[in-house]
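Q: Hi! First time doing this. I have a protein sequence and I read that you can turn it into a structure. Is that right? Here it is:
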Amino acid sequence: MSKQDSFSEMLDEVRVFHEKHQFSQTGGEDMAYRVALMAEELGEISACVTKGKPTEMLAEECADLMILLLGNAISKDFDLNQAFWGKMEKISKRNSRMIDGRIRVSNFEGSDEANQ
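A: Yes, that's right. Below is the predicted 3D structure, encoded as C-alpha cells:
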C-alpha cells in the first residue's frame, strides 16, 4: 500500500472503517469498550517488546493502537491533530529529569506548569 502519509488521510480511512462496520450504531464507539481495546493493544505491544518479537510485529501492534486513537477522535468528535500540536507545544516547554537512570519529561510536582 503506497498512500501518502497524512493525518487527514489516515483519519478519513478510519472514519470509512467505522462507517463500514457501523460502529456508531453497534457499540464500537463506546469509550469504555475502546479503552479496553487500547489496553489489549498495549498488552500486545508489551509482549512484542518483552518477548523480543520482530520489529514488524511491534509496528503492526503500534498501528493497531494508532487506529484506535484515531477512532477515539471520531467517536468523541474532537480534533486529534489540534490536540496533538497543542500538547506538543505544552510539553516542549517542560524540563526533563533523570529518574532511575532514564530521561523523563513530565509535569513534575512543584513545577510552574503543575502550579497553573
